[in-house]
Amino acid sequence: MTLRRVLLVIAILVATGAWVAFVYWMTGLERKEAAYLDIDLAEIPTGSPKFYTFQRSSFNVAATTEAMLDDLQAQTTHTWYQRPIAAPRPSFFVYSLVSPADGCEVEHVPKGADRYAPVRPWQGGYYDPCRFGEWDYAGRAIKQYADQDAQLLRMPDLDVPDFELREQHILRITRAPKR
Prior knowledge:
The chain has helices at residues 2-27, 66-75, 150-153; strands at 37-40, 49-54, 57-63, 92-96, 107-109, 125-127, 134-136, 162-166, 170-175. By secondary structure, the protein is an alpha+beta fold. Strand 8 and strand 9 (170-175) form a beta hairpin.
């Protein structure tokens, strides 16, 4: 009788341990948030964005082409802050895909797609479906019409996560922008 009880207790302990391990595994409690995210820039197709999630934030890395940079430079006068494309010309842009205006996730719209303000051809970028803001591939907020009231409609540029460039081709994201 005591051997039977011992075996029963052992079976209950093993079953309980297995249940706790299963729940622990299913809820992801053992996963620790990574301290950084390394992205090999050679794996990003040029001229189009690639999307990532890090620290529960969505962001984008866009490898540039000369034509894309020419388009972005030409659009500078149509951005709210008229921040020019830096020299030397960047090989990539990285920024958050969360609208700085309201926290809504912005959506990618490729070059040539319809846009809110059809006055100029769309060069590609992002729009906020909640507040109707637009950003180019450099993350700059775009004025939709020349006569827009800056006090009412000005949008901030997209936030840039903390990053460093390692070995000339590894982009290390170290902290996502907080909203």
